[in-house]
Amino acid sequence: MAVAEAAVDRHPNTETAGAPRGARSQPRDLQRTFQLLLATVWLLDAILQIQPFMFTRGSNGFSGMLNGLASGNPGWVSHTITWNATIVDHHSILTNTAFALIQFVIAFGITSKRTIKPALALSIIWSLGVWWFGEGAGQVFHGGATPFGGGPGGVLFYALLAVLLWPSTGPDQPFVAARTVGVAAAKWIWVAVWGLLTVLALVGSGRSPKALHDLVAGLNSGQPGWLARIDRSSESLFLHHGTTAAILLALVCVIVAVGVFLPPQATQVTLVLAMVVFATIWVAVEDFGGILAGGATDPNSGLLVILLALTYWPLAGTRPTPITPAPGLTTVAKEA
Amino acid sequence: MGTPTWLYYLSGVLMLAVAGYGAVLLVLSLASRRPAGRDVDISHTSMGIAMAGMFVPKWAFGASAVWELIFGVLMVWFIARSIQSVERFGLHVPHALVHAAMSFAMLLMYWFPMASSSASGSMAMSGSAAGSHLDSGLGALLALVFCGSAIFTLASPNKGASHHGTHLPSYAMSGASGSGTPVGSHGGEPSPVGNIEAAVALPWLEDLSHVVMCIGMAFMLILMT
Q: What ipTM, to 2 d.p.?
């Protein structure tokens, strides 16, 4: 390859350089890798926050989007949401700039080992605030929360991941999520999460064919053609088999919940099941959070659930992660 | 309250800053015969100028076909570099691959241009007016990749790897990070060019320019969706 050879000529020292191949076989600090993946999603969110319409006042802007989340909630919840939306409406440039900056700070803060703890703490506080004011408390209070639509609120998974990925020393075994909170606590957190998803799949509008149909129909405006076609299939499926789909999802959630107590190989099967199901939901129901239609502030829950599932992947049998990783090891696989 | 034109001007200025920094690095590397990073310098300079013209259309110049040719050549070059790296060092993600993706994204931006606002001279709020649209799935995927590149670059202990990868020795990367004879030195005495390079070609600054470019590009791609 002539071009490649030319590159070698331009860099005559490359043949004596580079990390020894042995260094590449060193175990990676997976907790750090997951932290950076979480930071990547935060950075994407920050960029989504500076889309032009976010700075716009009125019903077509960010404040309009927030106001729309108030309807259906109990009065005391609804008032807080509209109060916040009013402030955003009156100071759209200032508030949205601040919101974007906070998310940039979280994303960049996670990249440094000196600032990761404050950044993750901020992310937890921010996530809870966004869940309440920006997601209408995940529609939990009026029965509209369903895992198909991101219930109980996609942003809660950011907070959960911040807790599970809180920096700590020690090995990644038996799975990364256990490194900070311990194996037992991590497993019960998992059970609680999937138990909640099970309940939400079955209660309220979660099992209503029309509600599920409308959930997809409300998102498909402005989507690219290929996604709109998938949406139409989802709408049809939900309209005719919505209740069955909800029950099947609940069944999957139960299997996944108990999966962490099974032998590692069986756990892996349940985790793959969880990832496949939520990847499908992310694409075919959540429409990637609406990002592709140009009106979203985050990618909704699907991507985060997959990331969460990966932190529970059994690692027994692999070599332990060194407590103090040597410089240069954490990013070997990602040079740029 | 409407289109935040200040945001586009800010983005345009940042892109020009990256372009200017890339141009300085390129001149210094030619003067000092620094062996690595020239392709990335050329890439960042071109992308910075081109993207500044996209954020603020009145700053744009040059025929689209010329820019498309430039980024097409850069993309092929970086793909070749990526293949070469895999052949030499085994299966890994070569740093040149993200530069190839950035060149590809630039091509997409020229193939599916955004509308511009005649009143403000900056970009319009909504998507393409050129008839054809960039598939928003592809745009969002590339935006996510560039966000990842920015985050992993910032977190990398291998400063300067965004320009040089992790396979070059430090003395080949820049005067500033050199552990041996300073680049551009003659007979043990650092030359003026070597001194300037030592002050300017800082690995963390090279990474920062890459991060700014990644974020600017991700923003542009999100705007195009």
A: 0.86
